[in-house]
Amino acid sequence: MGAMESKVINLRILVDKKRDRVVFAESDKDFVDILFSFLTLPLGTIVRLIRNQAPPSVLGCLNNLYKSLENLEVGLLQSEKHKAMLLRPSNSSEHLCRKLKFNIDDTEPTKYRCHHDSQDLYLIHENVIIEDDKSGGVFVNGKARFMISDDLKVMPLSTSTSVELLTKLGVKDVDVLEERIVKVGKVEVLSLLRLSLLSMKPLTDLFLLKNVDCSGASTSDSAGQFHSRYRIDKLRGCKRMTIKIMLRKSDGKVLSAEAQEDFIDYLLSLLAIPLGAAVKCLERSPSLGCITNLYTSVQELSADRHLKAEYIKAKLLSPMHVSQFGYKSQLLGTNENFIPNSKCLFGLLPSGDKVDLYGHQPFNPNPIGGKGFINGPATFVVTDDLSVTPLSPISNIFALNRLSVPISDLEERVVCIGGEEVLRLLEASLTSTSALTSAFNLYLDEAKMEK
């Protein structure tokens, strides 16, 4: 048994026996640190970690996007490294996550290159020095204790808050309550990651109703539900893209889209976006369920009393790509301009050694994806559920035939994609199994009305 598998966290939970549900849990730093680490994980990492769990888990349409990338021939991308790094995107907080009691992310640490005595040295991302106050904890103050509601709201311990939770859940008789101690290991953490994305009661589902099939529980196929919430000013002036969509006129369903490399670059870039960055871009959308509650909890906790430091709070609320993943058309503003600190780098070498830092650049001076990920010019077909394949008109015709769509019911539309559509598609990719229809249907309705 490995070291990680042998570690467990004893978690104290309060159970409503009458309704068979968890009211809340009490925890120290270890469990809450793990919960908050979910916000730092790139979406592609989350797909990879949860897709093989039982029961099978589906994260919106991202599973299909991830599988499509796996199946794309390397020649369609700028290089094999582009594909490998999108399938296993680095976490810009990896140096912190490695300190967790359970670090479920097995992605290789990011390396940086320097030159020493005519040879290249590769240094991992630990060059960021963390001033430890010796209180323990990774993201939270090691001396603080917390209560976690069933829907993953993390709060400081408080009797009044516990009474509020009991009242909210309609618990009037203390006799229906029972204290239990449950053990949390790596398997439970992976299950909790899955449930936090697919359920509004993940603690209950994990500890009381194990193996509940939550696949698709948080997904929605209702179209046009995202339009009114966004402030588009933060993406004003972003590069606009054009795609051709094939619409089923009878019900407005988007069957597929023809898109060039710029749109595919955007879709693939979603795999490298940290979960917390997606929540921030979508302004804490309720459609993201318990993950929005986690994010809001970080906002509301004191950086002085409950979290390790203000910069830790910022890393959780605005997690960034590692610098190698930036590309010039990144539309969501989540690139990290990380410059290694030379003193930190020196500290990893034998005393007195000097290092020439190639301009303080990552080991690849040109960020992976600096010119995009796809080796264009190229045209692709994207299905409603975000499966991506190279364009083949013959294959498309037979695909439409399998959908039993009469040719007379088809209509091609040209859609211009800017900041608003980019955000709608981000949310749809996380929450819907029909991402194109969900993201663009309202736009199409408006276009039809104008016409």
UniProtKB/TrEMBL annotation:
Domain of life: Eukaryota
Protein name per the record: DUF674 family protein
Cross-referenced Pfam families: DUF674
InterPro entries (UniProt xref): DUF674
